[in-house]
Each structure stands twice: as C-alpha cells, then as structure tokens.
Write a structure and sequence with these properties.
Blueprint lengths: L1 H9 L15 H25 L4 E7 L1 E2 L8 E11 L2 E4 L5 E6 L6 E2 L4 E5 L2 H43 L5 H40 L2 E3 L4 E6 L6 E2 L9 E2 L3 E4 L4 E8 L11 E6 L6 E14 L4 E8 L11 E7 L13 E4 L4 E3 L2 E7 L5 E5 L1 E6 L2 E6 L6 E4 L11 E3 H6 L1
Parallel strand pairs: 1-25, 10-11
Antiparallel strand pairs: 1-24, 2-18, 3-13, 3-17, 4-12, 5-7, 5-10, 6-9, 7-8, 9-12, 13-16, 14-15, 14-17, 15-16, 18-23, 19-20, 20-21, 22-23
Helix pairs in contact: 3-4
C-alpha cells in the first residue's frame, strides 16, 4: 500500500509557478551594433562634409635677385625672333624633280645636295658638246698636219727657185697655200676652244640639275616632291613649285621689336636687354641692342630695333613671340649688389593701406607679411623686406584670405 501511495504522490500535479528563465542578451548586442554604426556614419559624414578643406589657392616661389638682374627696366616691348639668314632654295633651271633628300628639321651643311632634277636634257647637251669638241680637235689636228707639209714645201721650193729649177709662180703658189693653211689652223684652234667652252657650259647645265644648300642650317619647310615641276621663275602657274625647301641659319637668330616713337630716345646701341620667350616665361635670356633701324612706320608710329641674343639654344626658333626689357647701363661693382628678393607681382596686394603678401606655412595655412617693395622687374617685384628667398607665396590672394587661413593648392583641389 505504501508503495502505491508513493506512486500516486509522484503523479500529483504541481500547481506552483515554474522558475523564471534568465534574460536574453541578443537585444543588447543589436542595440550596441546600431550605436556603433551611427557613430561610424557620423565620423564619415564629418570627414566628407564637415572638414575644413581650406581656400583653394595657387602659389609660386620667391627667388633671390641675381646680380645680372639688378638693373632696372627703362622700357618694355614685344617682338619676334627672326633669322638674318633664311633662304628658300630652288634650282637654277626649270625641270622635273627626280628626288628630294631633305625633311623638316634636318640639319644640312653648306653645299650639301638637297634635291636632283631629271638630267635627261642636260646629259644630252653635254654629250653633244663632247662630240663637237672631239670633231673640232680632229679638224685642228688635220689642219696642223697640212700646215706642216705646206711649210716644208715652201722651204724646198725656196732652195729650188734660187737655182732656177722651179718657176717663181710655183713658189708663190706654195707660199699662198701655206698662208691659207695657217689661217685654217688658227680658225681650227678657235673652234676647238669654243667647243671646249661649250662643253664647260654643258657641264654647268648638268650641275644645275642638282640643288645644293647655300649655307649650313636647319630645314624648316619642304616644298617639293618627286615628279613635280620646279622653276625659279614660277612660269608654270599654280602647278609649278618655285622652291625645294627653306633653310634657316640658327646661328643668325635675333629679335626684332617695334618701339613707340615716344620712347625710342630711351634705347641706345649696345644697351643691355633681358628677353623672355612667350613659350618659356621663366627663362631670362641676356641680350643687347644691335641697331636702331633709321626709319619709322607711319601707320603704327613705331621704330624697329634689332636685338642680339647672347645665348644659342635649340629652344629658340624663328617667329617665336618674345618680350624684352631694356635695362639700365651696368653699375660699378660696389653699387651692383642686388638687394631684397624677387617675388611674383601677382602675389603683392594692398590690405589696410599696406603692401602685403601671404606666405605658405608647413601647416597649409598662410601668414600675412607686410612688405617693403622696390622697383618692378618685368612681371615681378623687388621686395626689400618681408619675404626671403625660398618662401612660397599665394598668387592673386582672394579677399576672404586672412592671416592664419587654411588653404589648399589648386592642383590638390582638382585631384579631390
């Protein structure tokens, strides 16, 4: 019985509440993840949109003034590079081009063959002249032999006529024949010389079919092709070339500028000049005045001035634009020491009645410098104080740029 009662107790339903389960941590981790994601998005948004990129600017370095550029410019002008020796080379005769041996940019030497014309006519003329010369020589040789015989005959008859073995008439006839042969010999010799001269002319005509360079230089234009007709007189109209190519002596390059009549009094021969090519604005080329052309252009009211370049460089080519600055005469050695530095003129601005510039710092900020400026040096300015050689300054500073402003270079802004 006891065992049955115990079994029944075990089958009894327990009405008490079951023990509570421990709380789940899954929701906590989800919440933390959302918070972290929001923080990351906030940081990225600040990095992309909230960061101060700074004012976009362009910069340029400040350079020391060399002793050669310490002279002040008394006059500025513009002009072009020209060549004193430039030639369009053509043949001396009209003919068809057989071959052209030049290309643009090729360096040629004096008397170098540039092209050849078809020499058919010239070869025929030379062959004919050689034949005529041979005929003239043969005729002269025959007449000389006859003359020799005639002179010998006269000598024999002279002895016989004295002994009265030959009549006087026969002797006189022999003398006449000798004199005639002498005249024929002189004529034959002249014909031989004329034939030789004609042969030399034919050789010259044959040589005229070869076009040679008149001087050393560089080919800047190729004007003819094989098969075209060239003529120095351009007699064939639009289908006839007048030249083979154009050669320039690069050692004869100089600068020609037009100076206004009102300022020509400032220019003197041998005056120092600083030339700047438009293609290389940072390259200052030393030069000097060669001559002032003694005539004026009434339409432009200018006078032409020739300027010699003291530097020979392959970068200098004809028809390049150039700006020149006529400088003061050289000063004594004790007075020629340059003062200050050379800064771009676009970097100097006026703020609050003072000349200032903004120098770039290592932290990509700018520092406003108060300047004491000197004379103009072309597009640059002489700065006596406020800047040092090696400083980097802002070009064309905007109005919102202040001391301590954060900046970024224009190139960096384009990359972003």
């Amino acid at each position: 019985m006891n065992s049955s009662a115990d079994l029944l107790k075990e089958l009894r339903i327990d009405r008490k509440a079951p023990p509570s389960q421990p709380p789940s941590r899954r929701g906590l981790w989800i919440g933390l993840g959302v918070v972290v994601l929001l923080v990351i998005l906030a940081i990225a948004g600040w990095a992309l949109f909230g960061r101060d990129k700074g004012i976009e600017v362009t910069t340029a370095p400040v350079a020391a003034i060399s002793s050669g550029s310490a002279s002040a410019s008394v006059l500025d002008a513009t002009g072009y590079v020209v060549a004193r020796r430039m030639a369009t080379v053509s043949s001396k005769v009209t003919g068809k081009v057989q071959e052209v041996l030049i290309e643009e940019g090729m360096r040629v030497e004096a008397n170098q063959v540039l092209a050849r014309l078809e020499p058919i006519d010239a070869d025929a003329e030379r062959a004919l002249a050689e034949s005529l010369l041979q005929a003239a020589r043969s005729n002269a040789t025959g007449v000389a032999a006859q003359l020799k015989e005639g002179e010998a005959n006269v000598r024999r008859l002279n002895q016989l006529v004295n002994t009265q073995l030959v009549s006087r008439a026969a002797y006189d006839q022999a003398i006449a024949e000798r004199d005639a042969l002498r005249a024929q010999a002189i004529s034959a010799q002249r014909n031989e010389r004329a034939a030789a001269d004609r042969l030399r002319i034919a050789v010259i005509g044959q040589d005229n079919t070869v076009v040679r360079a008149p001087f050393s230089g560089v080919v800047i234009a190729k004007a003819a092709q094989p098969g075209e007709i060239v003529s120095p007189l351009s007699a064939g109209g639009g289908f006839t070339r007048t030249g083979i190519g154009t050669i320039v002596d690069m050692d004869s390059l100089e600068v020609e500028v037009d100076v206004g009549e009102s300022y020509i009094g400032r220019v003197q021969p041998k005056m120092p000049v600083e030339a700047t090519l438009n293609a290389y604005p940072d390259w200052k080329i030393p030069a000097e005045v060669i001559a002032i052309i003694p005539t004026a252009d009434r339409g432009k009211a200018t006078v032409k001035v020739r300027i010699a370049l003291k530097v020979k460089d392959p970068r200098i080519v004809p028809d390049m634009g150039v700006r020149v600055s006529f400088l003061e005469a050289a000063r004594p050695a004790e007075q020629s020491q340059p003062q200050g530095v050379r800064a771009p003129g676009a970097s100097v601005v006026e703020r609050a009645g003072q000349q200032v510039a903004f120098a770039l710092t290592p932290e990509n900020t700018v520092e406003q410098r108060t300047l004491k400026v000197g004379r103009a040096l072309g597009d640059d300015r002489q700065v006596l104080s406020g800047l040092s050689a090696g400083d980097t300054v802002v070009l064309n500073p905007p109005d919102e740029l202040k001391d301590g402003s954060k900046v970024r270079l224009a190139e960096e802004g384009k990359e972003e």
